[in-house]
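Reopening: Multidrug ABC transporter permease/ATP-binding protein still failing for me.
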Amino acid sequence: MFQVFKKLDWFFKHYWKRYTFAIISLIIASAIGLIPPKLVGFTIDKIQFETLTMQLLVALVAGYLVLIIVHYAISFLWDYTLFGGAVILERWTRSRLMSHFLEMTPTFFGKYRTGDLMARSTNDLKAISLTAGFGVLTLVDSSIFMLMIVAMMGFTISWQLTLAALIPLPIMAVVMNKYGAAIHARFTKAQAAFGNMNNEVLESVRGVRVIRAFVQERQDAKRFETMTEDVYQKNIAVAKIDALFEPTMQILVGLSYTIGLGYGAMLVFENKMTLGDLVTFNVYLGMLIWPMFAVGELINILQRGNASLDRVNETLDYVADVKNAENVKDVSHVNSIHFNDVSFSYPATEIKQLSGISLKVTRGQTIGIVGKTGAGKTTLFKLMLRQYPGLIGKITISDVDITEISMEQIRSWIGYVPQDQIMFSKTIRENIQFGKGDATDKEIYRVMELAHFLEDIKQLPKGLDTQVGESGVTLSGGQKQRVALARAFIKDPEILILDDSMSAVDGKTEAKIIEHLKTERKNKTTFIAAHRMSAVTHADHIIVLEDGKIIEEGTHEQLMKLNGWYQEQYSQQQLEDGEVTN
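Support: Ran it again with your exact input. Result attached.
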């Protein structure tokens, strides 16, 4: 049960001063809280024996007020320090998770779904934070504070009565232990179900257009209702165990009260205790209710925290399958890129996505990559970005193996515009500035001209300050592609990768963007993957991929003379464009 504290020892060691101060303050506040019941008993005895004077009463009331003020001040200190530490843990762990996510490769995101990662980053962190705050409070109150109360009852009133009143405690320990084990198992299942539901909600929101287009609203709502019912049932299972804690505690506390009152009254009749002592004892017994409840709360919180911490640690312990080499080499310029007999298979399959790819690219060249869907174009780019392990052969930059260059340096050279455009829920200006944080409006307008987006920006209600909505929902497919192109252009990267990133724009717009590319990228390396041959006709070298192999390569003119796949596709597309024009 206490394993969760051991797992968090790295945090408690770092903030040991804060937690030491908080626990000591809590103990002092608890000790001060034990004095008033003694004053009450003392006062009752004085009244019973008619020895209470006005001077003594004033002194008792004044002392009581001082205790209240001191207790309040110390309680504020421990509360602020202890729960402030819990908030720090939540913030720190959330930052660690976010940093971890940013280091992970596609393999990780294939294993963990977005909704589940969101659940671990929210609900699970709250449960861990509760452990570091309320969990520590209940630990101290259910152990030290309880012992202090028992000691006061035993040493200052009656050990016999104290032992009799505490008979229900061992029963409580056994019952609470069983409840705790059940809570852990059920809470883990509930959190997993919540993660699945989160994921389904995200998919439904992202795919709302497709859902509406296929008139699947009712089916999707029904599917979501089924999932929420599953989450509900699993949380009800947790709540059922949770609901047993308080009634169990009330029965045991009630039993203690019954013993205390009955046996205590008998001791008073036998003159072994005063009436004031009996009142004090019952006040202490009332104070003992919270520590007894705290035992149950402690078990509940620790089991939830342990389950959540296991889920978070499972995520943090995932080791990225692509890492920097121990001794990375510094490469100042991208003079050449060389694919030397490169083959590759994705981790989950034995089928080769690339096989024997050899290609020499020099600085300033434009390389066109074409082929059927699934030929391996995107895979080639992913290997350049070092997103997957298991590369056979070599990819070198300036004659240095990319595995010996830091990933940060490789990616700083590359401006990547993928097939699936990613738009952040910000303004168009902020989306473009993602490529260059300090870009001015003048620079932004310039790259928008290169991406042929100037006319569109004039028609938008707030220009650059137009919010694009969730995943760019307010923009058309072509607009999103051009904003993504502008974002890459403003970076002015050494290597620009366009992965079928003009598929949603018309032929004339594509031609204008290509013309701008020719002018702007004269001394920089550019890779263009496309299904429209017109996008690569200007390239210095074109490769045709089929089933992960290069089946044709050369310039546009050379490939046209081969009368192969490229010539066939180009001629067909030209014919289709001609028909459309007419």
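The chain has a mean pLDDT of 87. If you still see a failure, please send the error message rather than a screenshot.
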